[in-house]
Amino acid sequence: MRLSSSFLSFEHQQEMNKTSDKQIALAAAVLAATCTGVYYALSSMNKTKNDLIAKVYKDVPSPKGLYYAGHLFSLGELPGHKVTEWQKELGPIIKLKMGIQTWFMIADPQLAHEIFVTRGLTTSDRPYHTYISDFYSYGGKGVVFTKADKRWKRTRTAALSVLAPQRVNEFTDVLLYEADSLVDQLIGRTNSDGQLNPITTLQAASLNVILTTAVGQRVKSADDPLFIEIMAFVNQGMKMGGAEADLSGFLPILTFIDVLTGKKNMFRKFIDNVRDPLFTRLIKEATEGEQDCLIKSFVALQEEYELDHQDLIVVMSDLIAAGADTISVSLSWMFVILSNFPDVQKKLRAEVDAFVNAHGRLPTFEERDQLPYAIAVQKECMRYRPTTPFGIPHMATEDITVRDHFIPKGSVLISNMLGMHMNPDVYPDPETFNPDRFLANTRTMSAAANGNISQRDHYNFGWGRRICPGIHLAEVEMFHVFARLFAKCVIAPPLGADGKERPIDINAAQNAGIVTLPAPYQVRFIPRTDSPLK
Ligand code: HEM
């Protein structure tokens, strides 16, 4: 039963990929034929429109119309690189005309705070119009992609209560088990294969944390049919949710391309035949089972928060997609970065060893103060290579003016995560990987994210009323993985055919919609012979 639906989801995914390729080709042909470069004429608050248009055409040698509207931002080495270059020159907020949509890209955290937090009542909507809102969220259910209305607020409040620290802490054993198992698998695969691409092992581990806590199930490995089934859904969800995914949202006229290519039907089928049966089954098995899990908390809150079965399906698919991919992507970047900085790893090992030697065991999350360098390294990794290029877009529901910048109602508001984290006014010498910059701010990421803007560490978890409700879970999970990694092994670059180490390219990335993945890489987790753990 599971096996057949996993093939179904895989086929769907293949079909949908083909569809979006067809769609892009058609869009390019139509737009090239009608000289539609003008569809995304750009304007800036500080410079003239022509300056920006010239820039776009200089950087995009053979414009294929709206295809580039999204990929414009991915043409640099890292998604967001290109627009970050523009913003260095043009200022912390620029306006892009994307068909009928107006996008504001924001690269200054202080300004982002004024827009998203101070003016949060009018800047917390989502701009998803078509497939996501009609099919994925059943016209407004769940948390991630829905408008900031009363239903969203109710569902978000329920999600916040089930992801609250005291509730997450009840699952500490699960988190420890998965962290141990992940590190042991990474070392085991290095021992057996020499080196490995860790992404599926990471995805399976992150998925297991959210899957066990949410519905009381876990996958055995990346070959488990349930893993394949869920990741097909997660990958598709990440693509659908990317800021640039919705061509007809930019230009309603392009809806006919969706009709021609059957995209609409394909999405509907994906939701009806893949997502809904999968989550209905997971919810049923969880609620009928003995094990404690978050879905049971949701069911208990169902009446109070007026949630029906569809609400449960959408919110569970939100949590599983948001929880699985983001953490694995963040850890994957940490491996790439730290394989390039052996001295940083040496200090990490010394810090973990000192704790283990003093206490005879690894630290708990509550003892994190005793590992300030590990915390600073995690924060610096997330600053240096942000998990998402543009967070999840917000939308203005009214005309607003912030510091003389007029933002009309309906504008799409985008955090340029790379721009913010490479902003030299906030992080001196931003291109240098330097964990010491965070040694003075080792408070938890969730406290920093929900506190005063001057005390924020980084901006990876977004803003204001929409800020990520999974920060505590993410942070605890990453902390336990870190402690085990450096107590047990050294992260080393892969070996070339000549037996010499080949550094992993820290700038090579791939755009996966909402998240930015490192380009596929090989790495080694070499067991320590001097590990303090017996
Ligand atoms: C390193 C890990 C993570 C990162 C970097 C991350 C990042 C983000 C970002 C940027 C947003 C959008 C915020 C905004 O619109 O301003 C978001 C929203 C969200 N995240 Fe996370 N997230 C992570 C982990 C998690 C986990 C573990 C969960 C839950 C299991 C989760 C659940 C959600 C949900 C439900 C939303 C939607 C909130 C809303 O729209 O009201 N995230 N996250």
From TrEMBL:
Keyword Metal-binding listed: yes
Binding annotation for heme: C468
This protein's UniProt keywords: Heme, Iron, Metal-binding, Monooxygenase, Oxidoreductase
InterPro entries listed in its UniProt record: Cyt_P450 (IPR001128), Cyt_P450_CS (IPR017972), Cyt_P450_E_grp-I (IPR002401), Cyt_P450_sf (IPR036396), Cytochrome_P450_fung (IPR050364)
Pfam family, one: p450
Cofactor: heme
Transmembrane segment boundaries: none
Protein origin, superkingdom: Eukaryota
GO molecular function, one term: iron ion binding
Family to which the UniProt record says this protein belongs: Belongs to the cytochrome P450 family.
Name of this protein: Cytochrome P450
